[in-house]
Design brief:
It contains ten helices and 16 strands. Strands 3-4-5-6-7-8 form a six-stranded mixed beta sheet. Helix 9 runs parallel beside helix 10. About 30% of the residues are buried.
């Protein structure tokens, strides 16, 4: 377990705040669900969702994330509870009941969101006050997207979420993998982001690898996730999304366009413009020089996400 210390600074005085996990009670689940989008980048679809008599279970929290991926959240209430296995059981149920999930999304968020469900990587988030070494080891052996998130409460007004471990299986091994091409609309087939990158010229591939290396070097907890139409970099939430074009990379970050001086041809306000991925600021990277100029903005997005 990482030794995280939190201090309150008051003039010349420094006071260490004592964090405590406590038991994962219903109040913690209620807190998470009330602020799910702010805390985890997930839109809430249902709480205590029944999987029916045949499967005989209830998913603690069911949602869809900012990439359009289905999300199952399970809360580990005791140190010995095998919540990961239970969550994997629900993931298998989800993959067998895609139509039911789509109807749930359609009823809550509309047809457009339902049509854009990203079955490339359904996620299981396990939230607990702590995990055992067996939990963290088991996650690395899994073929699913599984993330262990530890929480700490500091008094009544501070909550710390820490990504302890995450499995990142190759895209082609993920259940629900869409194959080399993805039908997005009836009669229309588009190449995946991975295909576009494979066909890009050597200069763009090199730029992408340099960008990827820079971002992943910022921390072991950063996840690289190939989506259907873009590549996402995230810790618990996205902080950079990359759309590969034939002669440039478009990087979308969570930096307010109002907080910087926009430069035509390099940065653009896309708050009112549709685009792949998440983020209000678009950065165009067409050269190593552009990448160097983009790095401070990517770092800023990482720090505020």
């Amino acid at each position: 377990m990482a030794d995280i210390k939190l201090f309150r600074l008051d003039g010349d005085k420094v006071q260490e705040l004592q964090g405590h996990p406590g038991a994962v009670e219903k109040s913690v689940q209620t807190l998470m669900e009330r602020h799910l989008e702010s805390l985890l980048g997930v839109k809430l679809l249902a709480s205590e969702y029944s999987t029916g008599k045949t499967h005989g279970g209830r998913i603690d929290t069911l949602g869809i994330d900012e990439n359009g991926c289905p999300v199952i959240i399970e809360y580990k209430r005791t140190i010995d509870e095998n919540v990961t296995s239970q969550g994997l059981y629900y993931l298998e149920w989800l993959l067998d009941h895609k139509g039911e999930f789509k109807l749930l999304v359609m009823g809550s968020l509309g047809q457009e969101v339902a049509d854009g469900i990203e079955w490339l990587g359904p996620r299981l988030l396990c939230i607990a006050g702590d995990f055992t070494k067996y939990d963290t080891s088991a996650v690395q052996q899994m073929k699913h997207n599984v993330e262990l998130i530890r929480y700490r409460r500091y008094g009544d007004d501070l909550l710390l979420l820490e990504l302890v471990n995450a499995s990142t299986p190759p895209v082609e091994t993920l259940p629900g993998h869409l194959g080399p091409k993805t039908p997005v609309k009836t009669g229309t087939v588009y190449p995946t982001a991975t295909e576009v990158l494979q066909k890009a010229d050597a200069r763009i591939k090199e730029l992408f690898e340099s960008l990827k290396t820079f971002i992943l070097a910022r921390g072991d907890d950063i996840q690289f996730k190939p989506m259907r139409s873009y590549f996402a970099f995230r810790r618990i939430r996205n902080f950079a999304c990359v759309d590969v074009r034939s002669h440039r990379l478009l990087v979308f970050v969570k930096v307010s366009p109002d907080s910087i001086t926009l430069e035509p041809g390099f940065t653009r306000d896309v708050r009112e413009i549709g685009h792949f991925g998440t983020g209000d600021l678009e950065i165009t990277i067409a050269s190593p020089g552009d990448l160097e100029r983009a790095k401070p903005l990517i770092i800023k997005s990482d720090e505020v996400s």
